[in-house]
């Protein structure tokens, strides 16, 4: 485990610090005596934290979809603190609409924010972590990667893309002392619905039986979510503190339930069609496998 003195020297670079899980994580890390690069599209929204912890913060403007701002933010972080020990790719957005309804422009916006911006940040930070031969990367994905959430097809797809590179990245950088964790949150009591979710303008009547109630619930901005952002922050810090952090970290009982149900569903389908699936190998390959089994 990391000692208290080691924790105080760690520098966290967190995207999307102005609210939600990013804000809760930044506050909790600072309360523990560590250092945070506070990034936000509007840095004024994190000025209170910077004023409270002036020696251990750097507030920088960062629209994650702008590569020049990504590079500049990382440059400023290294110039002030000399290193980045923990990178948290938290900033994200979502669009609600059926696959047929959502425009190409909105799909691209979704992937630019949730996937390509993370790729840009990774490529800016990884050279510094490689030189250090140490670092932790937390990529915030979603429990929606494991369920068919009506109207959330492109949000799920962008987060699945992020999970795809995260899993491979974890193996690529492990020999370099860098650890990667996919954080898969459930529903947390933040302002994500109000702040970062767009309800698609085009609404096809045929999809209303599926999507109508969901749209209404989002518009009413239900605040009765089960997840506590402070506890999520503590869980993420615990993962970073660990000598062996998980590659996947589900946050919330709802996330655990969703993942367990998805695994059971996948296993049931695999078992039901196993004979058909394995029958597609060449006959000699099948014969060899049968012989080995005997």
Q: What does the secondary structure layout of this molecule look like, with pairings?
A:
Layout: H1 4-9, E1 11-14, H2 20-31, E2 35-40, H3 47-52, E3 57-61, H4 67-81, E4 86-89, E5 94-96, H5 104-132, E6 135-140, H6 153-173, E7 178-185, H7 192-196, E8 197-199, H8 208-219, H9 229-241, E9 248-251, H10 253-272, H11 274-278, H12 283-293
Parallel strand pairs: 1-2, 1-4, 2-3, 4-6, 5-8, 6-7, 7-9
Helix pairs in contact: 2-9, 4-5, 5-6
Q: Could you report the average pLDDT, rounded to the nearest whole number?
A: 88
Give a count of the beta strands, DSSP E runs of length 2 or more. 9
Structural class: alpha/beta
Low-confidence stretches: 1-7
| Shape call | globular
Tell me about this structure.
- It comes from Fischerella thermalis CCMEE 5318.
- Keywords: Oxidoreductase.
- This is Short-chain dehydrogenase/reductase.
- The chain has two domains: about 250 residues, Rossmann fold (3-Layer(aba) Sandwich); about 35 residues, no CATH class.
- It is about 55% helix and about 15% strand.
- The protein has twelve helices and nine strands.
- α6 links the parallel β6 and β7.
- The termini are far apart.
- The N terminus is likely disordered.
């Amino acid at each position: 485990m990391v000692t208290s003195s080691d924790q105080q020297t760690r520098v966290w670079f967190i995207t999307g610090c102005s609210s939600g899980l990013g804000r809760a994580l930044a506050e909790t890390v600072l309360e523990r005596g560590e250092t945070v690069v506070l990034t936000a599209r509007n840095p004024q929204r994190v000025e209170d934290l910077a004023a409270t912890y002036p020696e251990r913060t750097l507030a920088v403007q960062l629209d994650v979809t702008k590569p020049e701002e990504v590079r500049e933010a990382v440059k400023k972080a290294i110039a002030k603190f000399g290193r980045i020990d923990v990178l948290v790719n938290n900033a994200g957005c979502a669009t609600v609409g059926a696959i047929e309804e959502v425009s190409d422009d909105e799909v691209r916006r979704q992937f630019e924010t949730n996937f390509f911006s993370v790729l840009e940040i990774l490529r800016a930070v990884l050279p510094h972590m490689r030189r250090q031969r140490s670092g932790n990367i937390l990529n915030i994905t979603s429990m929606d990667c494991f369920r068919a959430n009506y109207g959330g097809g492109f949000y799920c797809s962008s987060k699945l893309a992020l999970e795809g590179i995260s899993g491979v990245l974890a193996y690529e950088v492990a020999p370099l002392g860098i650890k990667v964790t996919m954080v898969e949150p459930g529903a947390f009591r933040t302002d994500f619905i109000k702040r970062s979710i767009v309800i698609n303008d085009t609404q096809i009547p045929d999809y209303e039986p599926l999507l109508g109630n969901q749209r209404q619930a989002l518009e009413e901005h239900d605040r009765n979510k089960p997840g506590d952002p402070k506890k999520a922050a503590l869980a993420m810090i615990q993962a970073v503190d660990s000598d062996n952090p998980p590659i996947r970290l589900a946050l919330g009982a709802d996330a655990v339930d969703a993942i367990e149900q998805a695994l059971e569903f996948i296993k049931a389908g695999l078992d039901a069609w196993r004979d058909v699936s394995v029958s597609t190998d060449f006959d000699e390959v099948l014969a060899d496998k049968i012989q080995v089994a005997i």
